[in-house]
Design a protein that fits this description.
Blueprint (H helix, E strand, L loop, with lengths): L2 E7 L3 H12 L4 E4 L6 H5 L14 H14 L4 E2 L5 E4 L4 E5 L2 E10 L20 E2 L2 H4 L7 E6 L3 H10 L4 E6 L11 E3 L4 E6 L3 E6 L3 E3 L2 E5 L5 H4 L5 E2 L2 E2 L12 E3 L10 H21 L2
Parallel strand pairs: 1-2, 1-6, 2-3, 6-17, 7-14, 8-9, 8-14, 9-10
Antiparallel strand pairs: 4-5, 5-6, 11-12, 12-13, 15-16
Helix pairs in contact: 1-7
């Protein structure tokens, strides 16, 4: 397996800046995110505080970002990273049924708006997971509950249904659900995931489901859930002035490290994170 120099998670201003500055310094990078870049950026009606680009809509600034990426031949890997594990001298990034490796990691994941359910963090790895296609074989002939925050979760539910004895699907969005026969759709709000040594049941607003496992399939998960052992305070990743986290080789930038939530601030932090990551890699040679 090829190992990248730097893996960057996030395609907002911080992630893109980190990618550009890493690439300028001849590092082999992989950038995870969406080709639509930041949904918040696209919705901004007018931007006047980004140096050199003023009186632009967010959509226009986004187009400029895209042009910069294209000019440097930087591509975006549109795959969701479910977990990242620090392995000593490298990081293992779990993406559905495969894994990527990188010597340094830059987190530019933005702000997590979906709070974890009660019991979710406590039972993570004890029946709670974030990648159904990764862990479904563990639940062969067992009962599985899937809490889906977008339509992509339906495909994962269908995959799990091929292995599990029973699948409950709890959609957290409106619309029609394309799930296989046999999957029971529960249109009730989940309140808590309960269990001692492992998951035992899910408490809903007016009932409960006995279950062996729960997959919580969100658009994004909080940094502390994404990277076990990462220090987070008041919802933000703890970093120093060089964007270093408490994990060696792991850096963070942008909204995920704190206010103010401004594009130009995020871009600056992305550059610092990249420069620090490059120095870290060069020191290991």
């Amino acid at each position: 397996m090829d190992r990248y120099d730097v893996a960057i998670i996030g395609t907002g201003a911080a992630g893109l800046s980190a990618a550009i500055n890493s690439k300028v310094r001849n590092k082999n990078i992989i950038l995870f995110g969406t080709k639509e870049l930041s949904y918040k950026l696209a919705k901004a009606p007018k931007i006047n505080n980004y140096l050199g680009f003023y009186n632009l809509t967010g959509s226009e600034l986004k187009d400029e970002f895209k042009k910069h990426l294209e000019s440097m031949d930087i591509t975006i890997t549109e795959e969701k990273v479910n977990n990242v594990y620090a392995m000593g001298d490298y990081f293992a990034l779990m993406v559905n049924d495969k894994m990527y490796e990188a010597s340094a990691l830059i987190l530019a994941t933005g702000v997590e708006y979906t709070k974890p359910l009660a019991g979710e963090e406590k039972l993570l790895g004890k029946g709670v997971g974030y990648c159904a296609t990764c862990d479904a074989p563990l639940y062969k002939n067992k009962i599985v509950t899937i809490i889906g925050y977008n339509k992509d979760a339906e495909e994962e539910a269908n995959y799990v249904n091929e292995l599990a004895s029973k699948v409950y699907y709890i959609p957290m969005y409106k619309g029609e659900y394309k799930v296989q026969d046999g999957i029971e759709v529960i249109n009730k709000k989940p309140i808590e995931i309960v269990g001692e040594a492992k998951v035992e049941k899910v408490i809903l607003e007016d009932c409960e489901l006995v279950t062996d496992g729960v997959f919580v399939l969100k658009d994004s998960i909080s940094p502390s859930q994404l990277v076990p052992g990462l220090e987070v305070k008041e919802g933000h990743i703890s970093v120093d002035r060089l964007m270093k986290t408490n994990i060696e080789g792991c850096f963070a930038a942008g909204d995920c490290v704190g206010k103010p939530y401004q594009y130009i601030k995020a871009a600056g932090e992305g550059q610092i994170a990249a420069l620090t990551a490059v120095s870290y890699l060069d020191s290991k040679k």
